[in-house]
Amino acid sequence: MSDTVPRFRRLLWRSVVGGRQWSVAKQVFLLQAALVVLLVLSGVLALFLQSERDTTAEARRRSVAVAETFAHSPGVLQALAAPKPSKVLQPMTEAGRKAAGVDFIVVMDTHGIRYTHPIPSKIGQRFVGTIGPSLAGQTYTESVHGPLGREMQATVPIEDPRGKVVALVSAGLKVKHVTSEVDRQIPIILTAGAGAFVVSTGGTALVGRRLRRQTHSLAPDEMTRMYEHHDTVLHSVREGVLIVGDDGRLLLANDEGRRLLRLPPDAEGSHVSELPGLDPETVELLASGREATDEVLFAGERLLAVNQRPTDQGGAPGGTVVTLRDTTELQALSGRAEVARERLKLLYDAGLGVGTSLDVRRTAEELARIAVPRFADYVTVDLDDGVLHGEEPAPTAATLRRIAVHGIRGDHPLYEQDRLIDFKPFTPQARGYGSGHSELVPDLAAATDWRAQDPERTENILEYGIQSLISAPIRARGVVLGIANFYRAKRDPFDEEDLTLADELVARAAVSVDNARRYAREHTLAVTLQRSLLPRALPEQSALDVAYRYLPAQSGVSGDWFDVIPLPGSRVALVVGDVVGHGLHAAATMGRLRTAVHNFSTLDLPPDELLSHLDDLVGRIDQDEGDGEDSGAIVGATCLYAIYDPITRRCAMARAGHLAPALVHPDGSVTYPELPGGPPLGLGGMPFQTAELELAEGTQLVLYTDGLIEDRARDLDEGLELLRRALAGHPDRTPDASCGAVLEELLPQGPKDDVALLVARTRALTSEQVAEWDVPADPSAVAGLRRAVTERLEEWGLDEQAFGMELVLSELVTNAIRYGSEPIGLRLIRDRALICEVADGSNTSPHLRYAATTDEGGRGLFLVQQMTERWGTRYSPQGKVIWAEMPLRGAPPVGAELTLDSFDEI
């Protein structure tokens, strides 16, 4: 109950001031201002009342004086005795009223009937007021509401010489005239009150300002809390607090500060240099006034952490505040905590810095670098030699290769990098590799088992200063891949806690090493598969001088491919293609497409027809794979197919979604031919178109995939312009040199996608290498053709091939005459082989069959097959061409038994 009233008062005060917490200075100022206002108002009110009272008293006094003066004036009694008193008295009263400065003088009889009045109409009427006291001979004053309004009047008797009251006189003032007198004094009163208020408020403000500075504008509850906190700091805080003045004297010391520094009770007020028992370094710090953060000082047997800050900020008095913290017992704990923090930081950094790539060597080097010098002075990483090639590791440590060595110095005696090491079974490395558990050797000098590995080298290691070892197996998914060796020299040897840290460190790296090993294995398999599907060597042919480059992507294999396919008639087909995607699926699809192109090329189809067949094949592949489990693996591929004829120097080409080739002309200029663009393979529904170009001898035909010119950093047009600049101006450069120049210009940092580049310089067969005859549709013309061919072969120095070639052309020409249609022509080509071509206007193709012993014919094509290396048929818009190739040198093929029956069809 005793606390309720004060709380109610505080609540009421807060509600009055709007809930705000006013400072003590402001509250005192408001109280003083309110008191000044109250005093000034009281003074003004008192002055006003006093003025009103004095004015009223003056009015009464003047009324009485005027009335008495008139009552005793000479002639008043004679006027009263006159027959018409009013006629005599009215002028007298008006003259007296104006002379006396009153509002009225009224003379009346003893019955109160007026003889005179400022308002003549009121004469003869009864007087308003009290006349009883005046009839009794007294002077009477009063305030009444008369004919002139509110009036202050005095009534006195008029006596005859005998003292008898014969009449009455009343004189007075209107109340408003009395009030006007007071009103004329109000400005003076208010001016005096305002002056007093200003002076008083100014003094109050000065007092409040000084009080505000002294109390720092604190509210009462804040001042209460401040003093409570002050007492807490002094007596309860378990941290020493000192306040030192700018003159070096101790101004304040709490209980904990006294205890830590062992200060005497009268220490406050003394200079810090005079305080007994303080260390000189402590005295120097306290007297200097400089800032200090967690400086460690000794106070007897205690180890104190000292923080010191200046107190002169914000206009405060100069000096410093000092805090002292006893860290004696925490020093050992903080040291262990710091070690634990450093180890966690090391593991965290290892998680971020080890295994940044799928490269075994780089991962091992990252492990070695992250541990030096934070955990060890020297680190070596030894992996099984098979792991480097993506293979499974061996069961023993007999084939470990050192792939990473790192230390604080480079002149260490440890085994060098890339050395193949066979660790003995009793060494810590071999034991750790075999058991899968880390081996700790705290003192290498005392250990004898590891010395037998290499006695001379181990002595050098000890003399070098290396004294402690941890061999941690690099183990992932239950398989040991190698050993990481941590060495320390001339510092604390490894202990059991370090062994745990080494296991954690190596475990983080082991997963990355194993991932890199698996990736290397998969990448090697993919690259091997891809390279096995690509041409291993270019075929021999005379139409083109060809060079190529194939660069697999850094991130894995893809489906880019190329091919050079010799065709009959000394022609050559050039193919470049690209399967969308990466990995084994893309490489396998590429192999299927390349095989299909080889098969379709044996049919000697035009480029547009070949691409149509290839498009149908890709559609079937998509359909087959769409019916399987991997329904989303749809093949997307592009292809460019070109056929070059060195006799006519014409090149027919068609493309399916592929980039157009570049042509480097003999004058050094580079152009991109307007080649009709077909859709990518597998879409179907759109035809492909063949374009024919006549190329001058020495023209370079450049075929490529999009990985050469397209990149995230440049668009297609920019890549094509770079390719143009790399090729232009060098018409005499070899195709191989052109390949190198293009890659250097466009891919200086290596490809991000697979790149296939094929550069072919055209050649032409001269008229000396080709002989042509028109053949009439008459079997008798065959004999003349044989003689002409024999003569031409003698000119070419191929007498040995004359007999066989006569048999072949006789069979082919005879079949064309018998079963074909005109026009019929014969062409003989001397290239790497001797080629015979017979053309006619029909589309019927001869078929090889085996004749029975009783058959008279049917052995002609069998004879052609036996006498030639290969033969076949190709179709053209004008008909067909049957061709056969014979080697330039050598005997006829074994098994060619010539009989008379062989000439039955000739």
From TrEMBL:
Main location: membrane
CC per GO annotation: plasma membrane
Membrane topology listed for this record: Multi-pass membrane protein
Gene Ontology terms for molecular function: kinase activity; phosphatase activity
Domain PPM-type phosphatase, first and last residues per copy: 541-762
InterPro entries: Bact_Sigma-Reg, GAF, GAF-like_dom_sf, HATPase_C_sf, HATPase_dom, PPM-type-like_dom_sf, PPM-type_phosphatase-like_dom, sCache_3
Keyword Transit peptide: no
Cell location: Cell membrane
Keywords: Cell membrane, Hydrolase, Kinase, Membrane, Transferase, Transmembrane, Transmembrane helix
Sequence ranges assigned to domain GAF in this UniProt record: 355-523
Protein's UniProt keywords contain Transcription: no
Signal peptide: none
Transmembrane segments: 28-49
Protein name: Histidine kinase
Organism from which the protein derives: Streptomyces griseofuscus
